[in-house]
Amino acid sequence: MNFLQLNEITIKILKDTEEMLKGYDSRIFKAKVVQALGPGGQRKAERELEWNRKTVRKGLYELENNVCPDRLHETGRKSSEYHLPNLLGDIEATVKPPSQADPTFRTTQLYSPLTAGEVRRRLAEDKGYSDEELPCERTIRNKLNDMEYEPQKVEKTKPVKKIPQTDAISDRVHSISKEADETEGVVRV
């Protein structure tokens, strides 16, 4: 039986290949290399390739028992929308009516006078959610930000205090008003 011989080039190729792999694929690769090294392969892999024996053993177990790969994408906490599919629609229905656009029209962001706490309270009252099933106030704030609602009051646009033509316009209005006062037959409305 021909077993894999380790030399500098083979070691470099194996290390580089292993570094490119992650998780399950890396463990299976290591297990196959150890099998190819033959008897004492785990020790050789640990000494020459600097691979952890526990990782190699886990890979050998997965390879021999046909264990399926890691499914990390299926782990973790589910989002609020997973448990409450209508939540985003109900949040939008609650926030949209009192919302206003940016008065300067510089952004497309909508401003709402409702805070996340107020939105949560209205969802419980108007939409019939229980307090326990609703996400916390911080989560609702994050959902509002994702939906591009800025929970703050809209600032009114402030008029420009004085433009260069202000004095000329005022003088013109005063002169026309004075002429109208002096002219007979002109009725001011």
Helix content range:
40-55%
> What class would the helix/strand composition place it in?
mainly alpha
The geometry reads as: elongated
Radius of gyration: 36 Å
Taking the sheet with the most strands, its summary is: 3 strands, mixed
Strands in their spatial order, largest beta sheet: 1-2-3
Helix-strand pattern, N to C? HHHHHHEEHHEH
Task: Compute the average pLDDT.
Answer: 83
H/I helix tally: 9
In the predicted model, the low-confidence regions spanning at least 5 consecutive residues are: none
Q: Distance between termini?
A: 113 Å
Beta content comes to under 5%
State the total count of DSSP E strands.
3
Give a description of the structure.
- The protein is mainly alpha-helical and 189 residues long.
- Among the domains are: 57 residues; 72 residues, no CATH class.
- The chain is built from nine helices and three strands; from the N terminus they run ααααααββααβα.
- A three-stranded mixed beta sheet has the order 1-2-3.
Outline:
The protein is mainly alpha-helical. 52% of the residues lie in helices and 4% in strands. Among the domains are: 8-64; 80-151, no CATH class.
Give the topology, please.
Elements: H1 8-20, H2 23-37, H3 41-48, H4 53-64, H5 80-83, H6 87-95, E1 100-101, E2 110-112, H7 116-126, H8 137-146, E3 149-151, H9 166-182
Parallel strand pairs: 2-3
Antiparallel strand pairs: 1-2
Keywords:
189 residues; 3 strands; elongated; 52% helix; mainly alpha; single chain; 3-stranded mixed beta sheet; 9 helices
